[in-house]
Specification:
Layout: E1 7-13, E2 16-23, E3 30-35, H1 42-53, E4 60-65, H2 83-100, E5 105-109, H3 113-124, E6 129-132, H4 141-147, H5 151-155, H6 158-168, E7 172-174, H7 175-178, H8 188-196, E8 204-206, H9 207-215, E9 229-234, H10 242-249, E10 256-261, H11 273-293
Parallel strand pairs: 3-4, 3-5, 5-6, 6-9, 9-10
Antiparallel strand pairs: 1-2, 2-4, 7-8
Length: 295
């Protein structure tokens, strides 16, 4: 379905103005927070918002924050941004939304946003469901090799990056120098568009952020205590193959579901996978609303 143009709202957070795109009725029975990854932002994810909303009979309020370094968020010191900032910001957004009212919250994480959604759900305990296209655990050497643009970058140890971070951590490089943005989509035109977008794949990120991400230790899946996790993995993803995410999903303690999106690349736009994504999102919405009704 087609989503209405979002409204731009702003949140003051640690000296920054965080841009959050919003759409849908403020009193909708459920909220969906879209979480982008590296090279993404609210505008890039917005075409998928309609799939999160799903059936017109299910009214959903959608929020899509731009994490520091990306989108329209105002970042006064980009060289200092670290992965922990993303975790903390998303936790604070979820906490603020929960303090506003008790409507259910669903996190939908795309690409590296999947692990962000997973971590935030565990840390806050205030999320009702997690939907993720990827679960990329950077502790896994196979994941590090997959996300790097060049094989040699994938073989650089997280420890080596940690060692150079105090000296070169504020140095910013184009994200497409570090990751193979040409694999963003199986449509070369869309991949080029994403890589050239100055608010997304064309942005520059500090080496310290890369180091903090590769060295971050997410909650071990065996210790996860968050909401049910549904993996909607693009089956034809040549950048981060679904097997990488399934390895992590199968270790999660708690309820999980896996759906492979047929024919879809990393940015899922192809059929029949796109319809499968919509159906999976609708099922998560129904489950959350049913659970909320029983409370």
């Amino acid at each position: 379905m087609t989503m209405a143009a979002p409204e731009s709202t702003w949140m003051a957070w640690r000296g920054r103005r965080i841009h959050i795109a919003r759409a849908g009725a403020p009193d909708a029975p459920v909220r969906a927070i879209l979480v982008h990854g590296g090279g993404g932002y609210s505008g890039a994810l917005w075409p998928l918002a309609g799939l999160v909303v799903g059936d017109p009979e299910i009214d959903v309020q959608v929020l899509a924050p731009d994490l520091p370094l990306y989108g329209y968020t105002e970042e006064p010191a980009p060289g200092t941004v670290r992965y922990q900032d993303w975790i903390d910001l998303l936790c604070d957004i979820v906490t603020a939304e929960r303090a506003r009212d008790d409507r259910p919250i669903i996190l939908f994480g795309a690409s590296m946003g999947g692990m962000l959604a997973y971590e935030v759900a565990h840390r806050t305990g205030q999320v009702d469901a997690v939907l993720a296209t990827c679960l990329l655990d950077t502790a896994d050497p196979l994941v590090r090799r997959a996300v790097a643009r060049h094989p040699v970058l994938g073989r650089i140890s997280a420890g080596a990056l940690r060692a150079i971070s105090p000296v070169l951590g504020s140095v910013r490089l184009p994200i497409h120098w570090l990751s193979d943005m040409s694999a963003m989509s199986n449509d070369p035109g869309l991949s080029r568009l994403c890589a050239a977008d100055p608010r997304g794949g064309g942005a520059r990120v500090p080496l310290g952020f890369l180091s903090s991400w590769l060295n971050y230790r997410h909650t071990a899946p065996e210790h996860y205590r968050g909401a049910p996790v549904t993996l909607v993995a693009p089956a034809a993803d040549t950048w981060t193959p679904p097997e990488l995410s399934l390895r992590f999903l199968h270790r999660i303690s708690g309820k999980t579901t896996a759906v492979l999106l047929e024919g879809c690349g990393h940015y899922p736009i192809e059929e029949p996978g796109l319809t499968q994504l919509e159906e999976a999102g609708l099922q998560v919405l129904r489950d959350v609303l049913e659970q909320d009704a029983r409370r």
